[in-house]
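FORM 12-B: Structure-to-Sequence Request
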């Protein structure tokens, strides 16, 4: 009898699961740690960003105890940056989480990068707790159907 530690779809699809070792108490890009799995996605420790090489439809789930700031997930390529998911915190620490689906196209053969930034509010300290989680995985291929081909 054999045991599979991860679902079968993880064998060939991009997948990331990670968290934080320490609280983050300063605004800036999160420095991830506690990597449980990283498959077909590269991580640059200097810039704290993931590079998504494979086109497809992805699901991002992240959350944790956050206070006094916002967590912003950003997609960045050579010529554009887009804030596509924000978790807003209140003045008191509370657990918040969000999910978002997004598509990486293979139009220009340029890899997209994904990073998460803690942005402090004007009125004081911001913090993300060690219960923070970040899960990213590819859920399907990109449908490249041209409307002219359907006629």
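FORM 12-B RESPONSE
SEQUENCE OUT:
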């Amino acid at each position: 009898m054999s045991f599979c530690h991860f679902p079968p779809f993880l064998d060939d699809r991009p997948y990331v699961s990670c968290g934080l070792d320490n609280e983050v108490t300063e605004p800036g890009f999160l420095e991830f740690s506690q990597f449980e799995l990283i498959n077909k996605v590269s991580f640059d420790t200097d810039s704290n960003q993931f590079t998504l090489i494979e086109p497809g439809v992805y699901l991002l789930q992240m959350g944790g105890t956050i206070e006094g700031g916002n967590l912003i997930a950003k997609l960045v390529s050579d010529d554009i940056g887009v804030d596509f998911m924000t978790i807003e915190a209140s003045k008191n620490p509370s657990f918040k989480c969000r999910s978002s689906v997004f598509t990486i196209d293979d139009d220009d053969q340029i890899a997209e990068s994904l990073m998460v930034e803690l942005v402090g509010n004007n009125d004081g300290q911001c913090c993300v707790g060690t219960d923070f989680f970040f899960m990213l995985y590819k859920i399907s291929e990109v449908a490249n159907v041209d409307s002219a081909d359907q006629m």
